[in-house]
Design brief:
The protein has about 750 residues and is an alpha+beta fold. It is built from 17 helices and 31 strands. The protein is elongated and about 155 Å long. The protein starts with a strand and ends with a strand.
């Protein structure tokens, strides 16, 4: 072809390219080069090129014509046979050897997102397996979440542990846990693959080592043959797992290391591991029975027994698993003494008093754990470790001896606390206290407290010794001065009480509690009529022996949801007023019952009955009589405003008390389930007779709000009287900590 008057051939083009390369590459002068080179090389590069390379390179047709343009090079015919270069044996490429570039497969996520390629759906993991292994014809379908279902065989192939398998799978399923509205089909498939492996692993836990799990997808839409599948609605896609369990493997041989060395204890200890040859293999049972065996050894005196990790060897030919549980029992031991790392803080002698074992008792690990919990329950330590230490080895059939070493870290001992409450009947109440819980070691608490309120002012000091003489027995002594002002009476009282009490704690909610003591007080009081008449106070000197016994069968000390409580108080009293001595007995019975209805409702009820026997009401100090009304009594009515009234219409108290309450505690789901609504109805009556007559019973109703915290529910109640007396408020508001009962 012609370009600018020059004829361009492959040979001339090659020559010009070589000349241009040599012109750039060869130096201007060659040194130590031979002039007698090979003839073929001489023909290619003559001596003149070595003598003056620049002149030689420019004195050619190629140099004079100039280098071809890129367009000219690109137009060189590719079908022209290229010349062979001297010494070069590699064939000149003609382009036929270059492989064709295969197109890249589409990105799976994009392909699925567009949902237009039917082949991608057909190739989804699990689809081919499902088609090769058809779905179970007679299947028991279990729904797990919105888009997952598991199919189990019916009849002879049914699985005994089906419910447990489904429950476990539902708790771990990726498809159920990570379900999101933004999911696409690829994400569902990846999670389905994970769930398929998970389900197969769960089947092995229950002894189905030959189980097969087949995965398939439903809800992909229908298409006619040869047509493309239309868009897929992800919300309608259902992943189905068909389970073919195969045979359930059984336990073969069971071995327990050195357990037989326990001699006479072997049968009982072996019985604690409740798995035998021929039982169905269950990995969960193996773990649980290992713990049971460890506990049985610890409860039988084997203080240093060790139970290693179980080893299960599966034999697929026999369809059995041989289980080995390595046991090193050691010897039998008895308790020695308890040692404290801080004898000045909680002495070893005091800790021995707390412990439920005595020196010489057979070692039991539960007793060691119980001691640890009891030390924490004192509230005096931030951390504690309790360990058994060998001091004498077993010998001649006699048990060895272990001392119990207790390492203590004291916690904060001083507390400043405050409590604020309000009700429309009682007004405000502010209570503050300071206490040191180990002022007189061990466990000698001193508390100073004060109350400032609309109806009460108090200053007092309390001493308490926990775990006095024996565990859970508390010695109390309290001295206080108090002023009370209410619609029913006014009183100024100085009181001293002392007694013994078996208390409950948050860690040890005991079924039975009791208290007994002595109370001595001097009180100057006047009732509502005396207040209106501006009469002076009457002074009463009272001695009492208060007693209490109660049974707590509820499930929680602060917020019971199930069970019941009953309690009885009795206080024989002697009262002296202006030289007149009166004796009487005061009794009060309390009972409450809690019944859950479903997961979100608890029905709670309460009854309180009281009586004062032995004297006329005029001989009883106004502060010692019965009253009703208020946040802890009949809501909707003012504090102490239910009952007999004097000529001025003010409450005067009575000798008989009757109260009834019914409420429904309904969880709302708000704030993570912490908020509950509580509709309630209360009723109560006070009579001047010693037996309840219920002739003037008052009924109140309303609704409350509860907010659960880790220290008990915060309570807000709004009540209204349904049959009010003249002067009763229409609304009562009560704010406090804890349930009403």
């Amino acid at each position: 072809m012609a370009r600018k008057g020059a004829t361009l051939t492959p040979e001339s083009s090659l020559t010009r390219i070589i000349a241009a390369v040599l012109a750039l590459a060869l130096p201007t002068q060659a040194f130590a080069q031979s002039m007698n080179a090979d003839q073929e090389l001489e023909a290619l590069i003559p001596d003149s090129a070595l003598q003056n390379s620049d002149a030689w390179a420019l004195d050619t047709d190629a140099a004079r014509t100039g280098a071809p343009t890129e367009a000219e090079i690109g137009e060189i015919a590719t079908d022209v046979e290229m010349p062979e270069l001297p010494g070069i044996t590699i064939p000149w490429p003609d382009g036929s050897e270059i492989p064709e570039i295969e197109p890249l497969s589409p990105d799976p996520d994009i392909d699925v997102a567009e949902q237009t390629t039917d082949a991608a759906v057909e190739a989804l993991p699990g689809q081919e397996a499902a088609e090769a292994n058809p779905r179970l014809a007679d299947a028991d379908l279990e729904r797990v979440g919105d888009q997952v279902e598991v199919a189990f065989p019916r009849g002879e192939g049914a699985i005994a542990d089906q419910d447990a398998i489904v429950e476990r799978f539902a708790g771990l399923s990726s498809l159920k846990t990570y379900r999101d509205d933004e999911d696409n089909l690829a994400q569902i498939v990846r999670r389905a693959r994970t769930d398929r492996d998970l389900l197969a692993e769960i089947m092995r836990v229950y002894g189905y080592y030959d189980a097969s799990v087949f995965q398939s997808l439903g809800g992909l839409g229908q298409r006619a043959e040869g047509e493309e599948r239309g868009p897929i609605d992800i919300s309608k896609v259902v992943v189905r797992f068909d389970v073919q369990p195969g045979p359930q493997y059984k336990f073969g041989a069971l071995a327990f290391g050195d357990l037989q060395a326990t001699g006479k204890d072997f049968a009982a200890l072996r019985g604690a591991f409740k798995l035998n040859s021929g039982d169905a293999i269950n990995s969960d049972r193996i773990v649980a029975e290992r713990v049971n065996l460890q506990s049985a050894l610890g409860e039988t005196g084997y203080a240093f027994a060790k139970v290693g990790e179980p080893d299960l060897v599966i034999d697929h030919e026999r369809r059995e698993g041989d289980l080995t549980v390595p046991v090193t029992p050691g010897g039998v031991y008895a308790f020695g003494k308890v040692n404290s790392s801080r004898d000045d803080f909680l002495s070893g002698k005091h800790l021995q008093r707390i412990a439920r074992f005595d020196p010489g008792d057979l070692y039991q690990r539960s007793d060691v754990d119980d001691l640890r919990q009891a030390i924490l329950a004192t509230g005096l330590v931030s951390s504690v470790t309790v360990e058994a230490r060998e001091v004498a080895k077993p010998a001649n059939g006699a048990p060895g001896t272990v001392d119990v070493d207790v390492a203590l870290t004291p916690g904060p001992l001083r507390t400043i606390a405050g409590l604020v409450g309000y009700s429309s009947g009682e007004g405000f109440r502010l209570e503050a206290s300071w206490e040191h819980r180990n002022f007189f070691p061990p466990e000698g608490m001193v508390r100073v407290r004060g109350v400032a309120g609309t109806q009460e002012q108090l200053a007092g000091i309390t001493f308490r010794r926990n775990n006095f003489l024996t565990r859970d027995l508390v010695l109390n002594a309290d001295l206080y001065a108090r002023k009370q002002v209410s619609s029913a009476f006014q009183a100024r009282t100085v009181s001293f009480t002392a007694g013994l009490e078996r208390q409950q704690t948050l860690l040890f909610q005991k079924p039975w509690v009791f208290a007994a003591g002595i109370e001595i007080l001097a009180t100057g009081e006047r009732d509502a009529a005396a207040i209106l008449a501006n009469q002076p106070r009457k002074t009463y000197f009272i001695g009492a022996l208060p007693m209490r016994v109660a049974y707590d069968g509820s499930d929680d000390l602060l917020d019971p949801k199930r069970g019941f409580r009953v309690g009885l108080r009795a206080s024989p009293e002697i009262s002296v007023q202006d030289g007149t001595k009166s004796s009487y007995g005061k009794m009060q019975f309390d009972a409450s019952y809690y019944q859950p209805v479903g997961e979100k409702l608890v029905v709670a009820s309460r009854v309180r009955l009281g009586t004062i026997l032995g004297t006329d009401i005029t001989n009883i100090a106004p502060s010692r009589r019965f009253y009703a009304g208020g946040g802890g009594s009949v809501r909707g009515y003012g504090y102490q405003l239910i009952g007999p009234r004097d000529t001025a219409g003010e409450p005067s108290g009575g000798r008989a008390l009757s109260e009834f309450s019914l409420e429904a505690r309904v969880k709302t789901g708000l704030l993570g389930g912490a908020v509950s609504l509580v509709p309630f109805v209360d009723a109560g009556a006070v009579d001047t007779t010693s037996t309840p007559r219920l002739r003037d019973i008052k009924v109140g109703a309303g609704i409350g709000l509860r907010y659960e915290t880790n220290f008990g529910p915060i309570r807000i109640d709004l009540g209204t009287p349904l049959n009010p007396s003249p002067g009763d408020s229409r609304i009562g508001v009560y704010v406090a900590l804890g349930q009403a009962f």
